Amino acid sequence: MKEIERIRQYADALRLTMLKNQPESLIHQAQIDKPGYLEFTRMLLEQEVKQRQKTDLDRRMKMARLPKDHNLESYNFNHSNGISKPQLRELRELIWLNQNYNLILMGPSGTGKTFIASGLIFDAVKAGYKAYFKTMEELISILRLKEMTSSALNAYNRLLKAHLIAIDDIMLFPMKKNEAVAFFNLIDHLHEKCSVIITTNKSPKQWAETLEDEVLATALLDRLLYRCEVLKLDGNSYRMENRKSIFN
Fold first, then answer.
1. pLDDT tens column, 190-208
2. Looking at CB atoms within 10 Å, which of 81, 211, 215, 232 has the fewest?
3. pLDDT digits over 209-225, tens only?
4. pLDDT value for 141
5. Alpha-carbon distance 134 to 160, whole Å?
6. In this structure, are residues 62 and 75 in contact, taking their beta carbons and an 8 Å threshold?
7. Taking all residues of the chain, what is their mean pLDDT, rounded to a whole number?
8. Virtual CA dihedral for 65, 67, 69, 70, nearest 10 degrees?
9. Per residue in 102-160, pLDDT tens?
10. In the beta sheet, which residues pair with residue 167?
11. Could you tell me the sign of the dihedral formed by the alpha carbons of 201, 104, 229, 122, in that order?
12. Domains and CATH numbers, the chain
């Protein structure tokens, strides 16, 4: 038992989490399989790498703050909304992300904008990118509070280092002048450094009305649309067609 405890201590000092937490099971399995020294060493290192990769993925998934439904493997193509299977497949390959392209998903409520956006964030995180999903309300709150709270400042700094950010329901509600300027400054900083996914039920021409500033709206669109794919989704609301009832 002293040897096991010493192994735990050494593993803890070296931050070998798998070996620290499960030395008995690893040693017991080795006693059964009787691997050579080289194979046993490789197996220990392989287990540690896999554990660290899983821990890192879990952490990044948590930080992405995805909505409940976000796996595009379950996308229902029977519900026609204007995006084809080949188009979605190409988006999921994330080549556009490496090229710093933006994506605007535009259409009425219930046409799959949020699901597609969060699904692409999910795919990006799995692929190793720093990717985050934010509603416009959450983003405005971060911009408003970043000078006052450390949590908002940390969230803002993470966005500055992101590879991909999805902003859901942009321009749904009017913004105050200082909020609109702060939002523009963020987009300006991210321009050609980070890809942005926008979901909106308003056309770019209507953004000026929401911002109440045509010059600012033009400058914002100039940066977002420079390298950008605009997908116009349409059709009936998926939620309304598949709504649940207490008495079903």
1. 998 999 999 998 887 788 8
2. 215
3. 888 788 888 898 988 98
4. 93
5. 14
6. no
7. 85
8. -40
9. 999 998 887 888 899 999 999 999 999 999 999 999 999 999 999 999 999 999 999 99
10. 134, 198
11. negative
12. 2-63 (no CATH), 72-241 (3.40.50.300)
- Burial per residue of 141-163, b for 16 or more beta-carbon CB atoms within 10 angstroms, e otherwise: ebbeebeeeeebeebbeebeebb
CA nearest to 135, candidates 160, 149, 155, 161: 155
Sequence letter at residue 148: M
Report how far residue 221's alpha carbon sits from residue 19's, in angstroms, rounded to the nearest whole number: 52
Stated pTM of the model? 0.78
What sign does the CA torsion over 122, 124, 126, 129 have? negative
Neighbour count for residue 180 (Cβ, 10 Å)? 21
**Tally of CA atoms within 13 A in the half-sphere of 236 that contains its CB:** 8
